[in-house]
Amino acid sequence: MRRITYSRYTGEELGISSEDLVQTLADFFLDSGFSRALYRFVEFDGRSLADLERAIREALERGLLSELPDRERIERELAGMSEAEREALAQRLARKLIEEGYVSASGQDFEEPGKVQLEVTDKSLDFLGYRALKDLLGALGKASFGAHDTRELATGVEASGSSRPYEFGDTLNLDVAATLFSAIRRQGPRLPLELDYEDLHVHQCEYRSSCATVLMLDASHSMILYGEDRFTPAKKVALALAHLIRTQYPGDSLRCVLFHDRAEELTLFELARARVGPHYTNTRDGLVLAQRLLAQERKDMKQVIMITDGKPSAITLEDGRIYRNAYGLDPLVIAKTLEEVSHCRRRGIQINTFMLASDYDLVAFVQKVTEVCRGKAYFTTPYTLGQYLLMDYLNRRTRTIH
Predict the structure, then answer these.
(1) How far from chain centre, in Å, is Cα 386?
(2) Which residues of the chain have pLDDT under 50?
(3) CA 265, CA 154: separation in Å to the nearest integer?
(4) Which of 2, 177, 340, 367 shows the smallest number of beta carbons within 10 Å?
């Protein structure tokens, strides 16, 4: 059922809420460097208040707020505004985002917006994760929430199996019928009926397993090349996955690894602010770091989700130098990378790969990875990445846990 939030309309901002504005400007807030000039790379936020005002004006002029419930009224109001009035509206909306904590400003000299540096706040990123998850699950249709299924049975609240005698430590989800039948069988049909310890039977339910996930995100140069931004959609999926785990799988853990010339762990909010650089693809370093992070987690299931659009083209040598080769599948790079894939398999870590490209070399490499670690591979696009990844996470089934 659609929910509508009502608020007092003052006319100053045409009734445009900060939440709707943040959703509309999601690509601006999660900028990956795609819109920047060639080779002009900035690792983290370097945007100003003037940039935000410009983005809001473009959204108003291009009708990007057309999904709002009262869009017709807003469009009529905008059509009757002059250029100066639209600019003033953009300035008020930008300051509204600052006042409500969706962006923070390093200075308050609004007379020179080009010198006021902005940074996206955790509040804004958390909201974007919620909206991304809501949109993705809406595209998937009905999805089953809960913990991850295994073939084991355990005691719990939801009964889905036969009952068994109670053992110390079980959840006391009593099977009343089986308990009474056991007492009657032991002492006959008489009253009062005396229950003994061995009469107690409890329902069984499917055992729910916790999962540790490392999300490996490719930040090499190719993620913003060829006329397509592949990095921003990947960051949106990371925010959505984190929101899903926090709200529906609280026993799970998610850690993020950015791999390029080297690999580094970033918090989710650091990842959301990161941008692509002029880097190669050091998949091996990413897998080494992912294994180290998963070794710190005491979980039944461990997996790596790797999002990439290119074949491995770099490795870190024993002396710390980086060996790079962007042409074809370099034998040394591939051998060292597959060696780490084998280490993952021996440690029970599954690797699921989401490919944002389908060139021959990448396909050959990913096929070998899935063969070695018995994982899964998905050919997808920036537009369908979220649906594939969330469906895989929600529908995942694992081996029997002993």
Answers:
(1) 8
(2) 1-10, 37-45, 142-160, 207, 397-402
(3) 35
(4) 2
> What pLDDT, on the 0 to 100 scale, is given for residue 329?
83
List, in sequence order, every beta strand (DSSP E) within 45-192. Answer: 103-105, 118-120, 148-154, 161-165
Q: Can you spell out the DSSP letters for 309-367?
A: SS---EEE-TTSPEEE--SS--HHHHHHHHHHHHHHHHTTEEEEEEES---HHHHHHHH
Q: Is residue 340 part of a domain?
A: yes
d(CA 117, CA 143): 41
What pLDDT is attached to residue 260?
Answer: 93
Q: How many distinct structural domains can be found in the chain? A: 3
Q: How many residues does the chain have?
A: 402
pLDDT by residue (tens digit) across 35-92? Answer: 553 434 444 446 788 888 888 888 887 766 655 666 677 777 777 788 888 888 888 8
One domain for residues 322 and 390: yes
Q: Is the peptide bond before 192 cis (omega within 30 degrees of 0)?
A: yes
Q: Is residue 68 part of a domain?
A: yes
The torsion region of residue 306 among left (phi > 0), alpha (psi -120 to 50) and beta comes to beta
Same structural domain, 320 and 297: yes
Q: What is the pTM of this model?
A: 0.70
- Residue 399 CB neighbour total at 10 angstroms: 12
Task: Tell me the C-alpha to C-alpha distance, in Å, between residue 121 and each of 105, 177, 206.
Answer: 10, 55, 40
pLDDT of residue 263: 95
Separation between Cα atoms, residue 94 and residue 380, nearest integer Å: 35
Closest Cα partner for 275 from 230, 226, 231?
231
Same domain, 114 and 160: no
If we measure between CA atoms, which residue out of 42, 35, 45, 56 comes closest to residue 120? 45
Q: Report the 10 Å Cβ neighbour count for 1.
A: 2
Residues 306 and 201 in one domain: no
pLDDT the model gives residue 171: 67
Secondary structure letter of residue 64 according to DSSP: T
CA distance 244 to 238: 10
